[in-house]
Amino acid sequence: MSLKTNESVHAKNSKQLKAQANVYRSFNYVGSKETVAYLFNDFSNSFHINGYRERFIWDVVKIDFGISAIVNIFTGAWDVINDTVIATLVDNTRTRLGKFRPYLIGFQIPLTLIGLLFWFIPFFFPNTSATFIPKLIFYFAFNIITETAGTFTSVARSGYMSTITPNPNERIRLITLAELLTGWMGEDMPNYIMGFLYDMVTTGKIHVPLRNIFAGMGTATAVISCVFTLWFFMISRERVPQTIERPSVKEGLKAIFTNYPVLLMCLSDFLSGFGISSDERNYWIDVHGGKSMINTILALVSGISGPVGSVSYAFVAPIRKRFSSRAIWTGSDIYGDMVTLGFFLFGLHKKNYLKLKPMLVAYGLKEFLNKLLFGVNKVINTDLWNEAMDYCEWKHGYRMEATTGVARGLVLKLQGVFMGTIRTLIMKKIGYVQGLKIGTQDEKTKFWLFALCTAVPLVTSALGIIPKFLWPINKKQREKMYYELSERRKQRIAEYMETVDSDGDASSDPATAQ
């Protein structure tokens, strides 16, 4: 081969490598207005009081633990059945609005209105026992209905967020902005306010029924969240082209096993799903809650460490540049486990877990250490799933966001039915008594409440880290993948436009090639 030919080949290879590197700096698709709406949508996802749903069921509605376990089994089984059907329907949707938006826009208001009924259960069945049959029937029916309707929006939402931009760097920018700014916008404020009010009522400082507090806070947060979410779905667009042909269910199931990154994420979630835990709030409320204003103090401690979490987003770009996704994913897991273990050992020492002041200091230190990698964890965990969806398109030529997402959750939901039942029964096993005055559970129960939010989930979910060591997409392969995807998408849109020109009619939005 001549020198001239070698130079020509070298120049061509250099040009292609440069193009692959430049794919990350390609055109930004999401404008300022849509970016603001994206932030408010992310804000709305956490603007709720769901952290107190357990306390609401235990202390206000009063559903027996054993019966609650049975309800979990039935609703979980139904969830598994309807998920597969709904995901297939979503993945085969092709409209002018797009693949996901019809469900996200159409279900938002009805689902919000139905969801409000949850917070009014104590008004429908006031002063009834934990085994009152009409209340249990209503609770069961409510779970079935909201689960079915909610599946449409949850499946569509998970797929939609990976299609609003084909530029991976822009996607990272949006995720980082959202995670950084929405905390300052007050997304956690409802839980802080709810904690303050809960504490004031249970310690007798204000005399308002808890059911009124829950109904007011639940309704207000749900309506505000609905407004912001609906606004985002109305003005945003799907920009990653889908294939015109509708993929079959068989192809979708096949993609689950042949899409190695998805398989690893599913396996990691599955192994982690054996974790047995109780919400940390239960420990603070039932062990220290009777000592006045504990939730307010916790909010202040978290607030002090908040700026550290914000600063941690500055570490995202340099860490992603220096380390692979695999190293970040596994390293952050190990780091978080070590922080939790340290918190548990400190509480165990001389029974510190029963002492408010030492545990508040330890909690503050734990929050500070966790916030050091807060931004990295938020961004990497979200983007890895989007990266896995792009990998599926790269390898197989089509996207199956809904079916693949449901498949990821299918085994977890089957597992969740079992583990949810176990967790509910464990509360009875450790001697937890429903309806007792806050802070008066016996010492054995208090220890297990502490262990169930620290050491127990740490040990029982430890195997979840193993698949993380096997993540296959390195930096070089990632650049190649996005370069080739960019070229394919351009060709797909060009072919679509040729079809439109020859037919003289467009059946959908050419920007999404649907």
Low-confidence stretches: 1-24, 505-514
Rg, please? 25 Å
Calculate the mean pLDDT score and round it. 79
User: What about the largest sheet?
Assistant: none
Helix content: over 70%
Strand content: under 5%
The H-and-E topology, N to C, reads as HHHHHHHHHHHHHHHHHHHHHHH
Question: Which structural category do the helix and sheet elements fall into?
Answer: mainly alpha
Separation of the first and last Cα atoms: 46 Å
Tally of DSSP β-strands: 0
What count of helical segments does DSSP give? Answer: 23
Shape: globular
Tags for this model:
72% helix; mainly alpha; 514 residues; disordered C terminus; 23 helices; disordered N terminus; single chain; globular
Describe this structure in words.
72% of the residues lie in helices and 0% in strands. It has 23 helices and no strands. The chain has helices spanning 3-22, 32-46, 53-61, 65-91, 101-106, 108-116, 121-124, 133-160, 168-185, 189-202, 210-235, 249-258, 260-272, 280-288, 294-311, 316-322, 325-348, 356-371, 374-396, 401-429, 443-451, 455-460, 475-503. α4 packs antiparallel against α20 (401-429) and α17 (325-348) packs antiparallel against α18 (356-371). The protein starts with a helix and ends in an 11-residue tail after the last helix.
